[in-house]
Amino acid sequence: MKKYLVLFFAIVFSSCGSNTSIVNSWRDPDVTITQEQFKKVLVVALVKDEASRRITENRIAAANPILKTSYQYLNATSQLTQEQKLKVLQDENFDGVISMRLVSKEKEVNYVPGTYTGMYYGGFDGMYTGMYGYGFGNWYGMYSPNFYDPGYYQETTSYMVETNVFSLKLNKLIWTGTTESQYVTDLGQTVDAIMQAVVKEMRKDGSLPPK
Known about the structure:
Layout (H helix, E strand, L loop, with lengths): L3 H6 L10 E8 L13 E6 L3 H12 L5 E3 L1 H4 L7 H10 L4 E17 L2 E4 L17 H6 L4 E4 L2 E16 L4 E11 L4 H18 L7
Helix pairs in contact: 2-6
């Protein structure tokens, strides 16, 4: 049996996830990914901003051809019930769903103290020794300029994101995890980092086979 979802999760994402870490996770003890056959998986980013949604879904879906973005299939179904939307996915032969949603966004302000640097122009000892016995370097060092970088307040934002893996065949959640990402500057790279952290945790808890 082909392990389609395993192939997806085995992908090494390009960016470093050093600013993203797993906060908590849970797996269905009765289901392992290697026992599931995912041939077509829907990627769903549950965010209000449409641009962020498409960036997130495109970033994940680009990793493997079995992954399909939700906006391609569900954007025209806004008037349908949940049961009708589920039937759309069944009719399209989807057997799995990966969803991501923003749980919380927190801002923190920290004070970074200033630094003091005294510039000293040495290296001329022994030259220009005059009546006072000072070399030029010693003399100039007494009057060398001093530099001070003032302190400042730095605002950092941390994002808590929940990633879920559903089996449509079993109609239940089989894995969920929450990640925390700090110093976010690029949405695409953050999505990569989140998926890296998810893969690492799923290997750790046995949801995925080791490398």
